[in-house]
Amino acid sequence: MKKLIALFMLSGILLSPVISKAQDADQDSAENDTTEIVEAVEADTAPAIVDDEIIEEDKSFHQVIKDKFIEGGTTFMSPVLICLILGLAVSLERIVTLNLSTTNTKKLLAKVEEALEQGGIEAAKDVTKSTKGPVASIFTQGLMRYSEGIEMVEKSIIAYGSVEMGRLEKGLVWISLFISLAPMLGFMGTVIGMIEAFDAIQAAGDISPSLVAGGIKVALLTTVAGLIVAIILQLFYNYCVAKIDSLVNDMEDASITLVDILVKHKLTK
Known about the structure:
The chain is mostly helical. The chain has helices at 2-45, 61-72, 74-100, 105-129, 134-144, 150-168, 172-204, 209-268. 86% of the residues lie in helices and 0% in strands.
């Protein structure tokens, strides 16, 4: 029994330094972990500092367009801009004119028929003359030939209808011109810009990626501008064409109805 107690005591004496070292190591490890955690938290919460960091404010759409216009060069960007301004001016003038030329044909025909029944041809002329629009003008020309017969009325309506159609289509040729001219000017600016870029490469004696990319970028800006102008004007052109087609259909239908009304009036007279 004494020998067993002595062995336990000896084992404790021998193992005590090892246990002490292990405890010290555990304590050091815990302290190191705590230090790393604290440093990580401080690193996350600390503001990041980047050398030579430049924060640019977002540019407005107007400023971006202005910068791109300057980058493309005023030599070819200015004619493209002029095409846009003139094309929009003609388009807006045509749109206003066509909308003012729109007439309620059903209401007009009802007034003409009522005037014929109550006051005859002269009363119907007063109704058409006091009404604005190409349909009323065609009616006036037809009523003026009423005394010469229905055939002359039809011929007068057809002839004057062609005149009114020409007036409605006035100005569309200019919009079409600007639609074609704007991309052409853009393409020409691109070709000349590419030539200047290759001249710069030849003068430098080396193909620098930045030099090539910069020259091509500036050259293509004129093409983009020309295509944008053409797309905008094409929308206005198609609207005007659709409006003219609608007015022409109304004129034809109303003219046929007017002839029928005149024939009925002549038969009942």
